[in-house]
Amino acid sequence: MEQKTKSANILVIDDDLGVRESLKMTLKDRYSVFTLSSVNEALNNLKSIKPEMIFLDIRMPKSNGLDFLKQMQSINSTIPIVMITAYPSSQTAITALRNGAFDYIIKPFNLSEIHAAVDKALNYRNELSKKDMLVYNLKMAVHKNFFSTAHALLLAIDAKDSYTATHSKNVSWLFSLVADELGMSKSKIEVLRYGAFLHDIGKIGVSDTVLMKPNYLTADEFLLMKRHPEIGYNILEPINFLKESLPIVRHHHEWYNGQGYPDGLKETEIPYEAAIFSIIDVYDALTSDRHYRKKFSHEKALEIITEGINTQFVPNLTEEVLTIIDKYYEISNENKQIDEFSEPGDNVQ
Questions:
Q1: In what residue span(s) does the HD-GYP domain sit (predicted)?
Q2: CA atoms within 13 A of residue 204's CA, in its CB half-sphere
Q3: CATH (domain of 94)
């Protein structure tokens, strides 16, 4: 005999065995039904059951359903919860609905009432899923369009200073490797890579003569160049989904001793992600050809950065980052080609 595929997972939470078994018998032919007798059991099994709707008793001995309802608003507010009560009153219904309940049914209930509640809740869940997917696709489109625009800006800078666009891709890639080794979450890394990729976007506001100068900058020219972190910050600050990555854009030239720019931050005032990125930024700059000098070797770059610990670079953290960079040196060489680079936003969740 061919086995039917169950269309949804339904969780029943009720201290009354009779209610649990009644709902299970009513729904088991069409759905996968899981029954639990307490809120604590439910909280411990949510991840394994993955319910698409929940029947929840309002009154239970150890923890009432309203408490669970409130907790579910922070755990997963997209799961419709139908409250079960033997004590119907308008106040009960109002309290349940205000706390996030999708619907409620009154004991004793009949079969048609149960099926109607399930159909209504699952239809709502499906519509919510469609909306979530629409929002996700819209988010992806916004990110893609934004980075197309940002990349065009970087190419505009590249027309002035060919170093900048390649550098932005290199440091974004290397930042993701280092941050991962330091234990940063994947989602956090993806967000911060935006800042790494766009950290020099403010150079669009620096004159060509300064960007393309074939030798070292004068004091006045350096003052002009020092404006680019703040210019970049001002360009990106209105974009909400970049907020978390803005410290990298603004503070990647701050120094541990407070002699950096634009804000003269020092020691622990420097955001953690900016302190990490500043090391990577300098490493890639040292190991790249510039208008005014040839690139340094990997070993020499590490030596120069090490000498800057306690003045330019944060102690302890810098040693950790350099160890990781050294570990990935061969990988870094293999991934220098722009074609192989995965730009931030390619894997946004």
A1: 142-337
A2: 18
A3: 3.40.50.2300
Angle of helix 298-307 versus helix 272-286 axis, rounded to 10: 140
Are both 332 and 208 inside the same structural domain?
yes
pLDDT per residue as tens digits for the range 146-201 = 767 767 766 666 666 656 667 888 898 899 999 999 999 998 998 898 899 889 88
Element (H, E) at 93: helix 90-98
- Shared domain for 235 and 332, answered yes or no, is yes
How many angstroms separate the CA atoms of 311 and 290, rounded? 24
Backbone Cα Rg of the chain = 28
60 has pLDDT over 60: yes
| 116 and 221 co-located in one domain | no
Cα separation, 240 vs 189, in Å, equals 17
Question: What's CA 145's distance to the chain center, in Å?
Answer: 19
Residue range 251-259: mean pLDDT, rounded = 95
Residue 276 domain flag: yes
Residue pair 197/277 in contact by the 8 Å Cβ criterion: no
For 257-266, the pLDDT digits (tens) are 999 999 999 9
**DSSP labels, 221-279:** HHHHHTTHHHHHHHHHTT-GGGGGGHHHHHHTT--TTS--SSS---GGGS-HHHHHHHH
What pLDDT, in 10s, does the model give residues 175-185?
A: 999 999 999 99
For residue 76, the enclosing domain spans: 9-131
Q: How far apart are CA 248 and CA 254, in angstroms?
A: 10
Asked if 277 and 196 count as a contact pair (C-beta separation under 8 A), the reply is: yes
Return the CATH number at 244: 1.10.3210.10
Specify the range with the lowest mean pLDDT, choosing from 144-158, 161-175, 243-257, 280-294.
Answer: 144-158
Q: Residue 150: inside a domain, yes or no?
A: no
Would you say residue 344 has pLDDT above 60?
no
Q: Give every CB contact of residue 194 below 8 A, 6+ residues apart in sequence.
A: 241, 242, 245, 344, 345
